Every structure is written in C-alpha cells, then in structure tokens.
Amino acid sequence: MNRRKFLKASAISAGVVGLGGIALSAGNNSTVLEPPTQTVPSTSNADPFALQSITLNINGQSYQVGVEPRDMLNNVIRDYLGLIGTKRPCNRGECGGCTVLIDDVPHMSCTYPAYRAVGHAILTVEGYNVDPVLNAVQQAWVQADSGQCSGCQEGQVMAATALLKSNPNPSLDEIKFAMSGNICRCGNYAGIIAGIQLAAQNLQGGSA
Ligand code: FES
Ligand code: FES
Q1: pLDDT single digits (tens) 58-70
Q2: How far apart are CA 182 and CA 106, in angstroms?
Q3: 188 lines ligand 2 (CB under 6 A)
Q4: Which residue's alpha carbon is at the smallest distance from atom 2 of ligand 2?
Q5: Residues 109-139: tens digit of each pLDDT
Q6: CA-based nearest residue to 144, from 153, 183, 179
Q7: Between the CA of residue 165 and those of 21, 131, 162, 168, what are the distances in Å?
Q8: pLDDT of 136-184, one tens digit each?
Q9: In this structure, which long-range contacts are made by residues 102-110, counting pairs with CB atoms below 8 Å and at least 24 apart in sequence?
Q10: Which of 110, 124, 125, 182 best tests ligand 1's pocket when mutated (most atoms within 8 Å of CB)?
Q11: Are strands 29-33 and 99-102 parallel, antiparallel or unpaired?
Q12: d(CA 38, CA 24)
C-alpha cells in the first residue's frame, strides 16, 4: 500500500469508527462491525432524594423528621431541628467540633448518616438537663475558664462527657488520648484539661 492509499484507508476507517462502528479494511472492501448490544439496567422510578420520615431520640425527646438518605446527623440536628448548639466547623471529619454522643459514645455528627442513629440515644450539648455528667462538665468549663473563642467548645464538652462516663477518674495521659480528635484552633488545651479534671473532681464529690 502506497502512502496515498494508506491515508485514504485510514480516513475511511476513522470516519466509520466515529459513527459508532469498527471498520475492517481489505482492499477496497470495508466491513462495518456494529458494537455489541448492551443491556441497559432498568432504572427505578423512585426519587433517590425523596424525604423519608425517621424518628430520632435526642436528649430524651423524640423528633420525627423527614431526611434524605444522604443527610448527615449534623445537618438534621442543626438545619432541620434547629438544635444549633452542635457546631460544624469543618464538615469533613477532621476537627471534632461537631461531636455528639450516640449511646454515650462520641461520634462526629458531620460524617454520621442520620438514619443510622434511629433507635439510639443521641446526646447533644443542649442535653445538660437530662444528663448529670454533661451538666457537671459544662459547670466545670465555666469554673475553669476552659473556653476561649468557643469555635471548638461544643465538641470538646461532648468528648469530655463521653470520657468521664466511661472513665470517671482519668489520668492526664488518658485525657490527652481521649481528647486527641478534638482540635482547638486557639490552642486552649491547658484550659480544656483543667475543665475535665475539675468536672471529674466535682462528680466524685470533691469541692470545686
Ligand atoms: S465539623 Fe465534623 S469533624 Fe469538623
Ligand atoms: S476555644 Fe477557640 S477553637 Fe477552641
């Protein structure tokens, strides 16, 4: 095949492929192979973003709320239910500022699907009236001046509450380990540790 014939054959092949088939050239004859027929999976008519009604137990109260499957617990608590004590500083699981307790275990609510919390006890920073440990932590926070700008404080308080529920008398190392996922941009870690130690002392009957 000389250069002219080669270019001609290539142009024909490219044109055919561009139309969705594959061309096999043999001399002047071209055979077009159609692409195999693919079975397109049937799609459901259901709206994947349709609201589904769920019931959440937050601070001892039942809340019925419509959520999308993709809704995280944080935006349901804050944006749908108006419990804005729970913050959302980073919204990507990096800072701990959105921490809530689920069955007394701390979780970052910005990455926790809301529907997974159904049937579990959720505690937020507003629940100080129903949870004595949370109440004691909040009082100690004020006494020890543990907050600074307060951007991180809700998450710190909730993480501290979870710690004291599972370990009423933590050592300094245990406090540091338990609080390691909660970032304070102000660097007020000494004040936060002092608040936790004071809360532990108060909960055990010590004087403030
Ligand atoms: S807002 Fe959830 S971890 Fe930062
Ligand atoms: S007190 Fe300001 S970020 Fe923690």
Answers
A1: 999 999 999 999 9
A2: 11
A3: yes
A4: 149
A5: 999 999 999 999 999 999 999 999 999 999 9
A6: 153
A7: 67, 10, 5, 6
A8: 999 999 999 999 998 999 999 999 999 999 999 999 999 999 999 999 9
A9: 104/162, 104/165, 104/166, 105/162, 106/158, 106/159, 106/162, 107/73, 108/181, 109/72, 109/73, 109/74, 109/77, 110/72, 110/73, 110/74
A10: 110
A11: unpaired
A12: 22
The pLDDT assigned to 35 comes to 52
Contact 161, 137 (CB under 8 A): yes
Q: Would you list the domain boundaries of the chain? A: 3-33, 52-203
| Mean model confidence pLDDT for the chain | 86
89 CB contacts (<8 Å, ≥6 apart)? 95, 97, 98, 151, 152, 155
Task: Tell me what pLDDT residue 59 has.
Answer: 98
Distance separating alpha carbons of residues 119 and 168, to the nearest angstrom: 26
Question: What is the four-CA torsion angle of 41, 46, 51, 57, rounded to 10 degrees?
Answer: -70
Q: Which residue has the tokens 């997974």?
A: 116
**Pairing status of strand 61-67 against strand 105-108:** unpaired
pTM recorded for the entire structure: 0.78
**Tokens for 137?**
């932590």
CB 153 within 8 A of CB 126: no
Confirm or reject CATH 3.10.20.30 for domain 52-203, answering yes or no.
Answer: yes
pLDDT of residue 119: 98
Answer yes or no: is the C-beta of 152 below 6 A from any ligand 2 atom: yes
